[in-house]
Design goal:
4 strands, 4-stranded mixed sheet
Length: 160
């Protein structure tokens, strides 16, 4: 709850796990126009951009939601929104939909001694935590209100 008594909503941020990133790049080659091809570099870029986004928002609640290519394509095919599965908007809507329906969303940033959101199995402080904030990327695009979600229960916040 916020100080006004209204529930605080957060934003679900989509990311592809290693096995899905390779398939995503094969399916949508233009992803590499903005993001690195290698998964470890991609994860570092996601972390850097998330840090920048976090700094530019007022008291943000962010949640990292892993997505998969087949699920994203199915979501877009079934959606009445007419989303292109290769678009950032589609990934954002899909991540929010998954978070709303109970898919585990990892709270971001994790605690220093918590497991990293990227599923490396390492503590955040030894994994993505040291990645510096993105500075060379354009200013973050404001997040769409329809990508907002209720915060998951604390017990659900750990990546699986």
């Amino acid at each position: 709850m916020s100080s006004t008594g209204a529930p605080r909503l957060g934003h679900a941020l989509a990311w592809f796990p290693a096995e899905e990133w390779t398939l995503a790049v094969q399916t949508w080659p233009d992803l590499t126009e903005e993001m690195p091809t290698e998964h470890a570099d991609y994860v570092a870029e996601v972390e850097a951009r998330t840090k920048r986004l976090h700094r530019t928002m007022s008291r943000p609640l962010l949640f990292m939601v892993s997505i998969d290519v087949a699920g994203l394509q199915s979501f877009c095919a079934d959606s009445e929104l007419g989303l292109d599965a290769g678009s950032g908007a589609a990934r954002a809507h899909y991540a929010a939909s998954l978070a709303r329906t109970g898919t585990t969303a990892a709270s971001w940033p994790p605690g220093r001694n918590d497991l990293c959101w990227c599923r490396s199995g390492r503590k955040y402080k030894r994994c993505c935590g040291p990645v510096p904030e993105a500075v060379a990327t354009p200013a973050p695009t404001p997040l769409a209100p329809d990508t907002m979600v209720d915060p998951p229960d604390e017990s659900e916040g750990q990546p699986q």
